[in-house]
C-alpha cells in the first residue's frame, strides 16, 4: 500500500490531504503531520486580535476536517530523502519516530523572522497564529486599562500609540480591526480622549496594498486617514525598543505596541532540506517545476508558502504563484491530482490558476475588492469580503459559528475581558520518584536539569561495541547540557534513571541556549564541563574538534 506523507497543516497541506482523500484510489494511505491538531484560517486572525471573533472561530480540528486522513501531531526534525523517511518528535517526552513515505509533500509554510531589524524580534507582535492574535488582543486591552488610570503624559502617549509595520493585506486589516476595537471600547474608558489614540501604518514602498489596483489602494488609504489612521509611505524601520520605534528617515515614535506583518522567511528545517536536496532557496522558498515537484526527485513535492511555483498569468507571462490562501487552496487541489496521476502513471498537469479576485477589509465596515476585473469599495466590498472568506472556511460548524459571532458583533459591545493564557515559565521545579525514567535512549532533549535534591544515573550507549558511558549525578549536578549546547544539531539523549525521590529545576531548552551563549562565562563553563565529563565520541563535534 502506497503512503503519501504531507508535512504541514496549513492551507496547502490541508487542502492537498482533503482533495486526496476525496479522489484517492483504493489502498492509498494519506498521512498529515502537523505541530497542532487544528487548522488555522489565518485571514480571520486580525478579527481575533480585535475581539470581533474568538480564537476558536478561526480554527478547525484536523481530525474532524480530514476524514480518511491519518493525523500525526508532531514536530518534524529531519528528512532522509534517500531512505524515504521523516524523523518526527512527539509528546512532552519528545519521543523520536521515523515515518516512511512513497510520496512526500513539503507544505511547511514560512515562519516569522524579524531578526533583520534590531529589536523587532524582541518587542514586536506578530499576527500569524491564534496565540499571536490572543496575545495582541490582551496587550491592547492592557494598554487601555493602564492609560485610563495614569496621569503621566509621556507614559499615556506611549500606551495609546499603536504602530503596524507592513501595509499588505495583513497589515491593513490588522490596523483597521484594531482601530475599530479601540473606538468602540473608549466609552468604557472615560479618562481617554479619542484624539489621544494614535494609529500609525508604516510601509516601505510607495503605496499600500500593492496586490490591488492603485485606485483601490488610494481609496483604502483615504478611508484609513478618515478613520484617524496615519499612513507613512516610503518609510523603513531602522529598529525598535521597549519604548519606541525608529524609522530609517530618523523619525522616532514612542509606542508600547508595535505589530510586524513583515518578515516571513524559511524555517531552519526548510533551509536544511534545501541543502540536502541540492536546491538553492529562491526568495526563501523551494523552487519546484510547473507540476509542483522538486526537480530531480520524482516523489518529492512542495506547495504553499514554502514553495516557489512557476506558472502563467492571464496574460501568458511567466510568473510565480503568490503566497496567498486562495492560491494555496488551488495548489493543494492540483497537487493532489498530480500525485494520484503519478501513482497511476498518467500525465501530470502544470499548475495554473486565474484568481477570482483580491480584497481587503479596511475597518469601519469598509473594504476594497477587485473581483474578476470589477473594482468595488465601501460597504458592498465589505459584504463581499465576508461572503468570500465564509465560503473558504472549512467545515459547516465553523461557518455557522463565525456567522453567529459576526452578527452578534454588529449589535453587541466587544468583550474586553483579559483572558490570559496560562503562563509557561522558562524554569520550573519537577519531582521524580525512585525508579522512574526521565529520558530513554533516542529521545530528543527538551530542557536543562539541575538537581536540587536526590540522585540520578545517566547511561549513554556508544558505538563500536564500547561499554556504555555511565555517571551518577547528585545534588548540585546537572544533565541535558550536552544535547542542548548546540540546539541546531540533533544529538540524542542517553538514559536517565531516578535513583531516589528527587527534585530538579528544569530550564526550557531555548532559554538555556540563550543564557549559555549570552554569557561568555557560562559558555566557557559548559564547554569545559562537556570536555571534562564526556568522552570525545559523545561530545558535540565542535567541542570535540577543539580538544583535538
What does this structure look like?
The chain is built from 16 helices and 34 strands. It folds into three domains: 3-35 and 74-110 and 266-355, FAD/NAD(P)-binding domain; 120-261 and 358-411, 3-Layer(bba) Sandwich (FAD/NAD(P)-binding domain), CATH 3.50.50; 427-547, Jelly Rolls (Sandwich), CATH 2.60.120.10. Helix 1 (11-23) runs parallel beside helix 10 and helix 14 packs across helix 15 (520-533). It has a five-stranded parallel beta sheet with strand order 5-2-1-9-20, with helices on one face. It has a four-stranded parallel beta sheet with strand order 13-12-11-17. A four-stranded antiparallel beta sheet has the order 27-34-29-32. The chain is α/β, with parallel strands linked by helices and 548 residues long. Helix content is 32%, strand content 27%. The radius of gyration is 26 Å and the shape is globular.
Structural class: alpha/beta
Strand order of the largest sheet: 5-2-1-9-20
Task: Please give the CATH class of the largest domain.
Answer: Alpha Beta
Q: Unreliable stretches, pLDDT < 50, 5 or more residues?
A: 544-548
Cα distance, first to last residue?
A: 49 Å
Rough outline: globular
- If you consult CATH, what is the topology of the largest domain? FAD/NAD(P)-binding domain
Quick structural summary:
The chain has 548 residues and is an alpha/beta fold. It has three domains: 3-35 and 74-110 and 266-355, FAD/NAD(P)-binding domain, CATH 3.50.50; 120-261 and 358-411, 3-Layer(bba) Sandwich (FAD/NAD(P)-binding domain); 427-547, Jelly Rolls (Sandwich), CATH 2.60.120.10.
Amino acid at each position: 500500500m502506497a503512503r503519501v506523507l504531507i508535512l504541514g497543516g496549513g492551507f496547502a497541506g490541508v487542502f492537498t490531504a482533503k482533495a486526496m482523500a476525496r479522489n484517492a484510489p483504493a489502498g492509498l494511505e494519506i498521512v498529515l503531520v502537523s505541530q497542532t491538531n487544528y487548522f488555522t484560517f489565518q485571514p480571520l486572525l486580525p478579527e481575533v486580535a480585535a475581539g470581533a471573533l474568538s480564537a476558536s472561530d478561526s480554527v478547525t480540528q484536523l481530525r474532524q476536517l480530514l476524514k480518511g486522513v491519518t493525523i500525526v501531531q508532531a514536530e518534524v526534525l529531519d528528512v532522509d530523502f534517500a531512505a524515504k523517511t521523516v524523523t518526527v518528535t512527539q509528546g512532552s517526552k519528545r519521543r523520536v519516530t521515523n515515518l516512511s513515505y512513497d510520496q512526500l509533500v513539503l507544505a511547511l509554510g514560512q515562519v516569522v523572522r524579524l531578526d533583520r531589524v534590531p529589536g523587532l524580534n524582541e518587542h514586536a507582535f506578530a499576527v500569524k497564529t491564534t496565540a499571536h492574535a490572543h496575545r495582541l488582543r490582551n496587550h491592547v486591552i492592557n494598554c487601555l486599562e493602564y492609560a485610563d488610570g495614569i496621569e503621566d503624559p509621556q507614559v499615556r502617549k506611549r500606551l495609546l500609540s499603536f504602530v503596524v509595520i507592513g501595509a499588505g493585506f495583513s497589515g491593513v486589516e490588522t490596523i483597521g480591526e484594531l482601530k475599530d476595537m479601540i473606538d468602540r471600547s473608549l466609552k468604557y474608558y472615560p479618562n481617554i480622549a479619542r484624539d489621544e489614540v494614535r494609529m500609525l501604518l508604516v510601509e516601505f514602498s510607495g503605496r499600500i496594498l500593492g496586490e490591488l489596483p492603485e485606485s483601490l489602494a488610494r481609496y483604502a488609504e483615504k478611508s484609513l486617514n478618515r478613520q484617524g489612521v496615519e499612513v507613512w509611505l516610503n518609510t523603513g524601520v531602522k529598529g525598535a525598543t521597549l519604548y519606541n520605534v525608529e524609522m530609517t528617515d530618523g523619525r522616532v515614535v514612542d509606542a508600547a505596541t508595535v505589530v510586524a506583518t513583515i518578515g516571513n522567511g524559511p524555517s531552519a528545517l526548510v533551509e536544511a532540506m534545501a541543502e540536502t536536496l541540492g536546491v538553492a532557496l529562491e526568495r526563501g522558498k523551494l523552487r519546484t517545476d510547473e507540476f509542483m515537484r522538486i526537480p530531480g526527485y520524482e516523489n518529492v513535492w512542495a506547495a504553499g508558502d514554502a514553495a516557489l511555483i512557476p506558472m502563467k498569468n492571464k496574460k501568458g507571462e511567466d510568473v510565480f504563484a503568490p503566497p496567498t490562501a486562495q492560491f494555496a487552496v488551488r495548489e493543494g487541489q492540483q497537487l493532489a491530482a498530480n500525485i494520484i496521476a503519478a501513482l497511476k502513471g498518467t500525465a501530470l498537469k502544470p499548475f495554473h490558476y486565474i484568481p477570482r479576485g483580491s480584497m481587503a477589509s479596511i475597518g469601519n465596515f469598509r473594504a476594497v475588492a477587485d473581483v474578476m476585473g470589477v473594482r468595488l469599495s465601501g460597504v458592498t466590498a465589505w459584504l463581499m469580503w465576508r461572503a468570500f472568506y465564509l465560503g473558504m472556511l472549512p467545515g459547516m460548524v465553523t461557518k455557522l459559528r463565525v456567522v453567529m459571532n459576526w452578527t452578534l458583533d454588529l449589535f453587541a459591545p466587544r468583550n474586553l475581558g483579559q483572558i490570559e493564557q496560562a503562563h509557561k515559565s522558562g524554569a520550573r521545579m519537577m519531582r521524580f520518584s525512585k525508579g522512574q525514567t526521565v529520558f530513554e535512549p533516542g529521545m530528543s532533549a527538551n530542557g536543562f536539569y539541575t538537581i536540587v535534591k536526590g540522585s540520578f544515573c545517566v547511561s549513554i550507549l556508544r558505538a563500536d561495541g564500547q561499554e556504555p558511558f555511565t555517571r551518577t549525578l547528585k545534588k548540585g549536578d546537572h544533565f541535558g547540557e550536552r544535547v542542548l549546547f548546540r540546539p541546531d544539531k540533533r544529538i540524542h539523549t542517553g538514559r536517565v534513571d531516578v535513583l531516589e525521590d528527587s527534585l530538579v529545576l528544569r530550564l526550557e531548552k531555548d532559554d538555556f541556549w540563550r543564557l549559555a551563549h549570552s554569557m561568555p562565562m557560562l559558555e566557557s563553563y559548559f564547554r569545559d564541563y562537556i570536555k571534562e565529563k564526556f568522552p570525545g565520541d559523545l561530545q558535540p563535534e565542535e567541542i570535540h574538534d577543539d580538544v583535538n
